[in-house]
Amino acid sequence: MSNLRSKFLEVYSVLKSELLNDPAFEFTDVSRQWIERMLDYNVPGGKLNRGLSVVDSLKLLKEGRDLTEDEIFQSCALGWCIEWLQAYFLVLDDIMDGSHTRRGQPCWFRLPKIGMIAVNDGIILRNHIPRILKKHFRVKPYYVDLLDLFNEVEFQTAHGQMIDLITTHEGEKDLSKYSLGIHRRIVQYKTAYYSFYLPVACALLMAGENIESHADVKNILIEMGTYFQVQDDYLDCFGEPELIGKVGTDIQDFKCSWMVVKALELSNEEQKKLLHENYGKDDQACIAKVKELYNILDLQGVFADYESSSYDKLTKSIETHSSKAVQAVLKSFLAKIYKRQK
User: Which superkingdom, per the lineage (predicted)?
Assistant: First the structure.
């Protein structure tokens, strides 16, 4: 795995160098340094799970055959396109949310002399993706499918972000707008498509598959993405900041989190009143009251039950798939996230 990771990072350096010397723009030393610093700060800093998943998935789809050097490079390049997409979303997301930290360091826009230039940096990150695809995949029979795939997933993610923002920020803070249905829609569109479906769809295209005929795979991956986000919501409240790389702020940010949706579902009238009065306030006493209620309602136990039933349901769905190679891809995804701590 460490060998794959170092190979993956080598490909990042190649792609970065190509982008910094893209003939479509006349770079100066200053602009080239800006882009390089911006890329190094925002693109390779995460766990790289989404990107590495493309390579892992392609290997499993090839059922034991070693990948050629070209296949390794190209699957890494597609993996990096997903990491670039993620960086673009996160840079802009942090500005919209007014966040302070990301991956254990200050958000890009919080750095001195960056500020709102970060908006344009986000746009540049987005524009790097078709440059990478054009350079390395233009001659492939699945090139148009790749472009369509990235465009469609970006469209879905941006609309998921919109539902999140208008539910969370529009007008008065009204907890009664929050439900499991709304939570599910936000999660499906904002996270599941690009984090779970996109890496596998990239690998399927590289393996010569028609992704339109894999609707069942898409559905399982969207379910997995939903489960992943519920874990995220749980870790935001009960995870260790040192492990997850950030201090959770869902309560004070009035997020439509699985935690609050579940709490509303399980609360009596008095407890609902407490939630309405304290949720979404950036005040340590209010946050403590919400967390105390979460403990009274035993949300840790409720989450443990949810986690185990989700795992069983997903495993059953995966095992009905006709292809053992596709089963292996889906099982490897599930194994990576089951009972994760960060």
Answer: Eukaryota
Question: What pLDDT does 259 receive?
Answer: 97
Q: Give DSSP secondary structure letters for 146-170.
A: HHHHHHHHHHHHHHHHHHHHHHHHS
Among residues 192, 197, 206, which one has the least CA distance to residue 76?
Answer: 206
DSSP class of residue 108 equals: G
Q: What is the pTM of this model?
A: 0.92
- Write the single-letter amino acid at 16: K
Q: How far apart are CA 146 and CA 133, in angstroms?
A: 8
DSSP alpha helices (H): ranges in 27-173? 29-42, 49-61, 69-97, 117-137, 143-169
Q: How far apart are CA 189 and CA 201, in angstroms?
A: 16
Calculate the CA 101 to chain-centre distance: 16
CA distance 61 to 204: 8
Say if residues 107 and 100 touch (Cβ distance below 8 Å): yes
pLDDT value at 110 more than 60:
yes
**What is the DSSP track for 210-243?**
-GGG-HHHHHHHHHHHHHHHHHHHHHHHHS-HHH
Q: What's the gap between Cα 130 and its chain centre?
A: 20
- Euclidean distance between CA atoms 284 and 268, whole angstroms: 24
Work out the number of other CB atoms within 10 angstroms of the CB of residue 238.
15
Alpha carbons 281 and 313: distance in angstroms, whole number = 36
Q: For 2-20, write each residue's pLDDT tens digit.
A: 688 999 999 999 999 999 9
Q: How far is the C-alpha of 249 from the C-alpha of 287, rounded, in Å?
A: 9
- Report the C-alpha gap between 121 and 100 in whole angstroms: 18
- Position 104 scores a pLDDT of 83
Taking phi first (over 0 means left), then psi (-120 to 50 degrees means alpha), and beta for anything else, what does residue 279 get? Answer: beta
Query: Predicted confidence band at 171 (pLDDT cuts at 50, 70, 90)?
Result: low
Cα angle 232, 195, 128; round to 5: 125
Q: Which helix (H) or strand (E) holds 142?
A: none
